[in-house]
Amino acid sequence: MHALRSPIARLTALAGLALALTAGSARADLAIGDDVPMKDVKMAGVDGKSVSLSSVAGKKGTLVVFTCNHCPWAKMWQTRVTEIGNAAGKAGIGMVAINANDPAEYPEDDMNGMKQRAKQLGMKFPYVVDATSDVARAFGATRTPEAFLFDAGGKLVYHGTIDDSPKDAAAVKDAWLKDAVNAVSAGKTVTTAETKAMGCSIKLRTKTTS
Amino acid sequence: MLLPAAGVVLLAGCGHAPTGGSATRSATGATQDTLPLEPVTAAQVHDRVREPGARATVVNVWATWCGPCREEFPALVALAERDRERGLRVLFVSADFDDQAHETRRFLAEHHTPGPWLVKTGRDQEFIDGLDRRWSGALPVTIVYDPAGKPVQFWEGGADSARFAAAVEPLLTTQP
Asked: What is the pLDDT of residue A8?
């Protein structure tokens, strides 16, 4: 207490407090082996139907990709994400693409933009809005694109990016997500369970609490 | 011993005239075309962080395609200029692709960005985990280091002037 009487000590203490607050507010990423969070929350899709993560789950697993329309990073991978999602559906893995961005920040990320993008890409899976961004919060999703793959038991078996070459599909050496989907559909263990890549920060909707 | 003008030291280290900021303000059309970008790995960023001469070092990874990065950028440039004499060193690291160098240079010049003008190189995952394992990869990311190179603040996403200032102020006011 005595030391805090000095201005420097007080500033140092404040810095420590700020650091503690920063650490305390860190996102809670899902860990490998965790269950699907918020799986019964309904989310509106581009086809006018609402789905939940439970309702899209396949017999062999569930693939959730947080994405959006405006992000250059998401755009670079969007064709590959669509191909992987469409193939996953045929292999018994339910796929859903979730847009958790606030369209107030990026108008291109509104439902009309989503409808156009889904049609353009030929998505054969739901592209839905996380209208409160709470699903993204529950996943600890921070960027687009960011993929979460769950096995038949609803346990997280892969979390991360799509592959190692966002700009050039022909130059991909490590097709992490595709490989993980193939492993799950074959009932095998995912070799690389966690990967990272840069991406656009998800612009979460402002939390409204009563 | 801490040098009072860490930014100037860095400019000198990059081969730019240590003119106390004039080099950073030479954002003319010519500078825009010739501004030297320096590819760096995460380890090389850490080497820069550990160089003596700063009471606080801020590493900010940004990209021209990243909206929140563009929004917060002027505030951090202003802070870098304002507190340089107090020992603040700011390292901007672009995450743009190689073929975006023109856009990177133009943005840096337009914002009178103090050097060094760093550009991330290598595979994403190596750079992300090499810089800080807490980093998910989302941009922007900001890390504040103490004079010993220890990270004392870390956050993802955009910030404003107040947050940047609050993050470095305790370090700048601490006696060496």
From this structure: 42
> pTM of the full predicted structure?
0.82
Structure tokens at A171: 């130059």
Q: B47 CB contacts (<8 Å, ≥6 apart)?
A: none
Q: Which of B108, B4, B119, B118 is nearest to B55 (CA)?
A: B4
Q: Which residues pair with B119 in a beta bridge?
A: B39, B94
Task: Tell me whether residues B158 and A197 touch, CB distance under 8 A.
Answer: no
Give the one of B97, B137, B173 whose C-beta lies nearest to A11's C-beta. Answer: B173
Q: Do A199 and B123 touch (CB under 8 A)?
A: no
Q: Give me the mean pLDDT over the B129-135 stretch.
A: 96
Say how many CB pairs under 8 Å bridge A and B.
83
Give yes or no for B166 touching A (CB within 8 A).
yes
DSSP string, B31-81: HHHHPPPEEE-HHHHHHHHHSSS-SEEEEEEE-TT-HHHHHHHHHHHHHHH
| Closest-CA residue to B118 (of B103, B106, B128, B108) | B108
Q: Which of B124, B139, B173 has the CB atom closest to A200's CB atom?
A: B139
Contact list in A for residue B97 (CB cut-off 8 A) is: 167
Q: Could you list the residue range(s) of the whole structural domain that residue A162 is in?
A: 31-201
- Say if residue A22 is in the same domain as residue A69: no
| Residue B96 within any structural domain of the chain | yes
Give how many domains chain B has, as a whole number.
Answer: 1
| ipTM for the complex shown | 0.78
CATH label of the domain that carries residue B97: 3.40.30.10
Low-confidence ranges of chain A (pLDDT < 50): 1-27, 210
Residue B1: inside a domain: no
Q: Both A194 and A146 in a single domain?
A: yes
Window from A13-27, B1-15, B52-66, B146-160 with minimum mean pLDDT:
B1-15
Identify the band that residue B2 occupies on the pLDDT scale cut at 50, 70 and 90: very low
Q: Is the pLDDT of residue B29 over 80?
A: no
CB-based contact A197 B128, cutoff 8 Å? yes
User: Do A64 and A90 lie in a common domain?
Assistant: yes
Q: What is the CATH number of the domain that holds A76?
A: 3.40.30.10
Contact B171 A15 (CB under 8 A): yes
Q: Give the gap in angstroms from C-alpha A49 to the nearest C-alpha of chain B.
A: 30
pLDDT tier at B58 (50, 70, 90 boundaries)? very high
